Amino acid sequence: MEITVIARQVLLYGHIIAFALAVATTIKEDVHLLRAKRIDSASLLATAKLVKWLLLALWVTGVPMVMMDIGTDVSLLLGKPKLITKLIVVGALTLNGILLHFVAFPMLTGKTRNPNKAATIAATLGAVSITSWLYASFVAVSRIVAPYFSLYDFVMLYLLALAIAVSFAILVVRNRLELLLKSSDDLTDTSAGQGHSLSAALLEVEIARLALRVCPGTSSGIAKLSKHEAD
Asked: How far is CA 3 from the centre of its chain?
């Protein structure tokens, strides 16, 4: 058995494991986010970090397999519409992931001035993400229909799936995310107000304690006055 066959099998196995974990993690976090009562920043950022590394693993394992298939002759890609579609979808996932990390997640985990805008962006990018992962799954198992599909067919079906998913996200998911953002902001404001009140109370106690140290007769005078009034 040639070493290239073994290497290809190892790469394929790693590719499948990384892909399965990425899809499962993405779906789990999406469900968790939509069922939560407020934005769980820690969970969201941890999931984003994991998916980032899994996506990198897909590139690391996928590119060598492509090179084994076509070598350095890029023109051979023209006869492989399924492979081109995979590259398009993974490229879209990578670009979308960058936008999620640097645009959507900061809006979801921080205090935003425009919850509607933040919810719209997050819902749209989230829809692109989950649809792309699921479509990549479809392409991976499309051995039966692949001979009947051209590159145009694959791409049009992908765009149709994106259009449906984004429309659903805007009409349904956006409102849910906006409510989560508002509730998270209200909770943050309440916590900040309680913290401010507690700090003010502690400051008043400290001032009173210092005043008693400076004027030790004050406390005894107050105690005598209280006793006299009681008599």
From this structure: 39
